[in-house]
Design goal:
By secondary structure, the protein is mainly α. Helix content is 51%, strand content 0%. The longest helix has 21 residues, at 67-87.
């Protein structure tokens, strides 16, 4: 059984397919969705691409589809997406949902980092404790801001709090 979140995601995917059919966005969505369904299986991907094409052709053959036709078309792809998610379990389902979310929102996955590293969007905190080493490779812009000034009985002249075990002369 799929969670409400996954059912909503499947509905969003179906709506995206229905909305994109016959527009400039179709080719990009079609290719990404074919890849999502194929999950590395080239024959399955080609099969889904052919199905997407033929179903879009049927939808558009009489001209601009009306709201009911678009709803029916979106519902068919919603059901197909939901059935695919239903067949997956655990980590595979989570990965597929993450990919589908990116597909529906138009977000692209970050390119893989060289050497087995990780790409990060947003904030990253690198922290080392007890004599260990923490490092990061930065490719891009970095913004530094001074640490917040602290006040109180343990603040030194710089405004930074002193550690309780530090001895001050």
């Amino acid at each position: 059984m799929l969670t409400e979140e996954l059912l909503t995601l499947a509905a969003a995917a179906g709506a995206a397919v229905a909305t994109a059919a016959g527009t400039d966005a179709w080719e990009g969505l079609r290719v990404r969705l074919g890849g999502w369904f194929g999950r590395g299986d080239a024959r399955l991907e080609e099969s889904v691409l052919a199905e997407l094409d033929s179903s879009a052709d049927r939808l558009l053959e009489a001209g601009t589809p009306n709201g009911t036709e678009l709803e029916r078309y979106g519902a068919a792809w919603r059901d197909r997406v939901a059935a695919t998610l239903e067949q997956l379990d655990g980590p595979d389902r989570e990965d597929a949902a993450r990919e589908l979310r990116r597909l529906v929102t138009g977000e692209t996955a970050p390119a893989p980092a060289p050497g087995g590293g990780q790409n990060v969007r947003g904030d990253l905190r690198v922290h080392a404790e007890q004599g260990s080493l923490a490092a990061a490779l930065i490719n891009g812009n970095v913004t530094f801001s001074p640490p917040p000034r602290r006040s109180g009985p343990r603040a030194d002249r710089t405004g930074l709090r002193r550690h309780p075990r530090w001895r001050c002369p």
